Amino acid sequence: MNILYMKYAIEVASAGSLNKAAERLYVDQANLSRSIKELEASLGIAVFERSARGMKPTPDGEIFLKYAKNILSQIDTVENMFKNGADGKSRFSLSAPRASYIAEAFTAFTKKLPAAGQAEIYYKETNSNRTIINVLKDDYRLGIIRYAGNYDKYYKELLNDKGLSGELITEFRHMLLISADSPLAKKDSITFADLATLTEIAHADPYVPSLPFAEVKKEELPDTERRIFVFERGSQFELLSQNVMTYMWGSPVPEHLLGRYNLVQRICEESNRIYKDVLIWAGDYRFSQLDNDFIAELCRVKREIFK
């Protein structure tokens, strides 16, 4: 029996509908419906009654869901019992986009690590393709991918095909990051035309799996006269703070970081594309206490910054 299907069934029962459960689980509704039908076929019972008002468990479904919750709880207990391995180390690993709010949450998380015992923590900033590979093949337990909203269906299908689970963290429009001494800093409204004489700082590896790099690069990095490519956030902040004729697009940045580098962030009304950050993990992976601690910090920071 597929353990992931158990989790799906529990979420559908909790949500009361396929649509709401699909949004919570971050899977395509059609794939979720197919998974529930396959579960019912393997059990030989109808787990849910379907109606125009949604889905509710059948009497047999109630019994199944009770056992499913117990099974998942026992799996969680066993995994946590042996999760740290024979050496007794606490382990945490995250592959994520180069986003200051995520780094802020990670830093807060590290401050709350247990004072006693050994700990092994990995934090890798990279693009979405590399993050998916890290979670699938390189033993990263959590990942965060970022993509433009028009790729939403593509990524939902990709995660489902790879056996990965996902949960939406946040949606946002790109903010414009510039020096507080920039000639644009005091403008109430900034347009694309205002940026023509400035140099853009950009991450050099935008990537969408299975799509030509040239196509993604053209869409994510539109033509501009001047651009500096970087691969990590330290360089971008140094450039932005010391060269007032540069700018960068990205997710919202914590206020204290803006102050440290003498930066400001502005909205450009012409930049209206929606981006999504999605937490991903292997479908059968059960979160450890460290994972839950990090996610709690991530949610806290998100609420503070994405107002």
Your description of this structure?
- The protein is of the alpha/beta class.
- It folds into three domains: 3-82, Winged helix-like DNA-binding domain superfamily/Winged helix DNA-binding domain (Arc Repressor Mutant, subunit A, Orthogonal Bundle); 90-172 and 276-305, D-Maltodextrin-Binding Protein, domain 2 (3-Layer(aba) Sandwich); 175-272, D-Maltodextrin-Binding Protein, domain 2 (3-Layer(aba) Sandwich), CATH 3.40.190.10.
- The protein has eleven helices and twelve strands.
- The strands form three sheets. It has a five-stranded mixed β-sheet with strand order 4-3-5-12-6, with helices on both faces. The protein has a five-stranded mixed β-sheet with strand order 9-8-10-7-11.
- The model has no long low-confidence stretch (mean pLDDT 87).
What do the pLDDT scores average to? 87
Strand order of the largest sheet: 4-3-5-12-6
Mind telling me the CATH class of the largest domain? Alpha Beta
Q: Helix/strand/pairing class, anyone?
A: alpha/beta
| Topology as a string of helices (H) and strands (E) | HHHEEHEHEHEHEEEHEHEHEEH
What is the rounded Rg? Answer: 22 Å
Taking pLDDT < 50 over at least 5 consecutive residues as the criterion, the unreliable ranges are none
Instruction: Supply the CATH architecture of the largest domain.
Output: 3-Layer(aba) Sandwich
Main β-sheet description: 5 strands, mixed
Shape: elongated
Report the CATH superfamily of the largest domain.
Periplasmic binding protein-like II
Percent helix among the residues? 40-55%
Terminal Cα separation, in Å? Answer: 43 Å
| Total helical elements | 11
Total domains: 3
The third-level CATH topology of the largest domain is: D-Maltodextrin-Binding Protein, domain 2
Number of strands: 12
Proportion in β-strands: 15-25%
